[in-house]
Amino acid sequence: MEFGALIGGLVTGLREGVEAALIVGIILAYLAQTGNRQHFGKIWIGTLAAVGLSLVLGVVLFVTVGEFRAPYEQLFEAATMLLAAGVLTWMLFWMRRQARNVKGELHAAVDRVLSSGGGWSLAFLAFTAVIREGVETSLFLVGQVNAAASTEADAGWSVLIGALIGLAIAVVIGWGVYAGARRINYATFFRWTGLALIFIAAGLISRAVHELVEIGAINVGSQPAFDLSGVLPDDSGLGLFLRALLGYSSSPEVITLVCYLLYLVPVLWLYLRPVAVAKASETSAATTG
User: Fold this and answer.
1) pLDDT in tens, 55-84
2) What is the pTM of this model?
3) Distance, CA of 51 to CA of 260 (rounded, Å)
């Protein structure tokens, strides 16, 4: 089992799973607090439907890749990795902006559904909340599996096992939210796991560019930028761990390294900037006006 791929999958499963589990936990806790436990079954129906659809999508994507022949397989893998990195980046910044308001928005949405008398709309609410995370997780994991498998044949399974462990931990956290254990600092949790996923996404981009270089789709900058294979090879030990987790390469092409840094540096800078929060004076002025 490849430890770096295992950790990469675990971070993905944990980060994405916690978002979905957090949403479901908040909805269930609010229903319990407002005496609406009779709707729990509808929440679980919507949740399980979203999980099942996400699994089907992931399997279809994974099997489809194996049906292509070179160079179409490499093109599809590269497209999957780039799409996964793009979706993940959007999700990280969306969650960064919305994290403080998620609980209040969910409570308001549940109130609207309950006041309209449409109990089954709660199932749809849970479905839409979970399916977004599920689709992102499936897409991102397929990208990670493809990138890991290009390094070592069994590394793809390590990614999937790690993701299952992460999802299991996320379920426990979601249960803790429902049970009332709210001592976890979710802002800190999302911030640090988000940082890890930015590096993983940068690695996906570099692997996608490398695939395109290999099949001749990209010719500019295809020469090696440097060669550290004698010091830190990427096919064993620490180098293999860094490759699976962060996209490290001991002899990257110039264009691969450039694309890696062009993504990593600005995205890290934007992600680490303080989130703009409305000042109290502005809020009161808006209310008075």
Assistant:
1) 888 788 777 765 566 677 778 778 877 887
2) 0.62
3) 32
